[in-house]
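From the methods appendix. Each design record in this collection lists the discretized structure first, followed by the designed amino acid sequence. Records were kept in a plain field format so they could be parsed without special tools. The example shown here is representative of the layout used throughout.

RECORD:
C-ALPHA CELLS (345 positions):
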C-alpha cells in the first residue's frame, strides 16, 4: 500500500465517502477522498488536464498524496490501458538513475551482464511518473530534458536512438523556483516540466476532510487486521482536528493504523499524537506497521503477565488463534526477557 496520502490505494481499499452535493469534477475521481474547498481546486485542475497529453508538475509537502494523484491523472487519461511507470529520483544512487531511466546494453559497463530496458521505453504510450524530481543530479537533468524535448532516448552503450511517446508527470516537495535561482536545478528543465502545475494542499489547510479520511483508514485497517472497530469517538476526532499535521495525510494514516492495533473495544476513544523529541522540534518519528504491532502484542502480554492462551490470555484479548499469535511473536522477535524487562520499567 502506497502511503503517500490523498486518494485510496487501488489494491483493496474501498471508496471513501462523498457529499451528495460534490462538484462534478470530484465525481470523476472517486478514488480521491476529500470534498473541502481546497480539494475542489485540485479536482478542477485534474478535470482540465487529465485527458490531455500535457506535462504535469505536482507540488506539495511530503505526505500530501502526489503519487496517488499522479495515478488518478493517468487513469483518467487516454493512456489508462497501460500501467503508469514510476521512478523515485531520490531512492536511487546517481550512478544508477541513468540506467533506470534510459536502460543499457549488455557490456556497456562493469556488471551490465544483459540488456536492460529503461523506464522511458517501458512507459511508451503510457505515463512516466518522476517522483522527487528535485533530487535529480545536474548531469542527468540535461539528458532528461533532451529525452522530453526530442521524444527519443539512447540506452547506455547503445548507438541507436529510440523513439518514445511518453506523458510526463513529475512531483517534488521542493521549491523548484528557489532551486533554479540557487543553481541546483536547470531553468530550462524547470520550464519544460512546469507546463501545468498543481499544488496539493497540506492536511492542516483541509481539516474538513479529516473525518472522512480518518473513517476510511479505520475501516481499511480494521478489516486488514481482523478487528471489529467501527468508528472514532467524538473526543478523539476533536484531537485529530486540533493537531497541526506536519506529516499530512500519511501521518494521519499511520496514526489511525496504530490506533486500530491498540484499541481494546470497537470504538477508538483516544489517539496518541506524536510529540517532537527534545532538541529536535522538527523531527517526528513514525513507527512502521510491524513496530506498532510488536509494541501492541508486548503490551498485551505484559497485561496478561506473559500468558498466551486460555481465559484472559493474550490470544483471547487479541482475538487471534494461539498458533497465529505464536507465529507473530516469533516473526516479530518478541522474547520473554523483553516482556519481563518491560514489566519492571
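DESIGN:
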Amino acid at each position: 500500500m502506497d502511503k503517500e496520502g490523498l486518494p485510496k490505494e487501488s489494491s483493496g481499499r474501498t471508496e471513501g465517502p462523498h457529499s451528495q452535493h460534490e462538484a462534478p469534477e470530484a465525481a470523476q475521481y472517486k478514488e480521491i477522498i476529500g470534498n473541502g474547498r481546497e480539494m475542489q481546486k485540485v479536482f478542477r485542475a485534474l478535470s482540465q488536464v487529465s485527458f490531455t497529453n500535457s506535462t504535469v508538475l505536482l507540488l506539495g509537502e511530503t505526505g500530501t498524496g502526489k503519487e496517488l494523484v499522479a495515478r488518478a491523472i493517468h487513469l483518467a487519461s487516454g493512456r489508462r490501458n497501460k500501467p503508469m511507470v514510476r521512478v523515485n529520483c531520490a531512492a536511487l544512487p546517481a550512478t544508477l538513475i541513468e540506467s533506470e531511466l534510459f536502460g543499457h546494453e549488455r557490456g556497456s559497463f562493469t556488471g551490465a551482464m544483459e540488456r536492460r530496458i529503461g523506464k522511458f521505453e517501458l512507459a511508451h504510450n503510457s505515463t512516466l511518473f518522476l517522483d522527487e524530481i528535485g533530487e535529480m543530479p545536474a548531469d542527468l537533468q540535461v539528458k532528461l530534458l533532451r529525452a522530453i524535448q526530442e521524444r527519443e532516448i539512447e540506452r547506455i552503450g547503445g548507438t541507436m536512438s529510440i523513439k518514445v511517446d511518453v506523458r510526463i508527470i513529475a512531483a517534488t516537495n521542493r521549491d523548484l523556483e528557489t532551486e533554479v535561482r540557487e543553481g541546483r536545478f536547470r531553468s530550462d528543465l524547470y520550464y519544460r516540466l512546469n507546463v501545468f502545475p498543481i499544488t496539493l494542499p497540506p492536511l492542516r489547510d483541509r481539516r474538513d476532510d479529516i473525518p472522512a479520511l480518518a473513517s476510511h483508514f479505520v475501516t481499511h485497517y480494521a478489516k486488514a487486521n481482523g478487528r471489529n472497530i467501527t468508528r472514532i469517538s467524538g473526543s478523539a476526532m476533536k484531537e485529530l482536528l486540533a493537531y497541526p499535521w506536519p506529516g499530512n495525510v500519511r501521518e494521519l494514516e499511520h496514526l489511525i493504523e496504530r490506533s486500530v492495533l491498540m484499541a481494546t473495544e470497537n470504538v477508538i476513544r483516544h489517539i496518541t499524537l506524536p510529540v517532537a523529541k527534545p532538541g529536535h522540534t522538527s523531527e517526528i518519528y513514525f513507527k512502521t506497521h510491524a513496530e506498532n504491532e510488536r509494541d501492541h502484542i508486548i503490551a498485551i502480554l505484559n497485561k496478561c503477565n506473559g500468558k498466551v492462551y486460555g481465559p484472559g490470555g493474550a490470544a483471547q484479548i487479541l482475538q487471534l488463534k494461539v498458533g497465529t499469535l505464536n507465529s507473530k511473536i516469533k516473526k516479530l522477535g518478541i522474547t520473554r526477557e523483553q516482556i519481563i524487562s518491560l514489566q519492571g520499567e
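APPENDIX NOTE: Residues 1-5, 7-24, 277-285, 341-345 have pLDDT under 50 and may be disordered.
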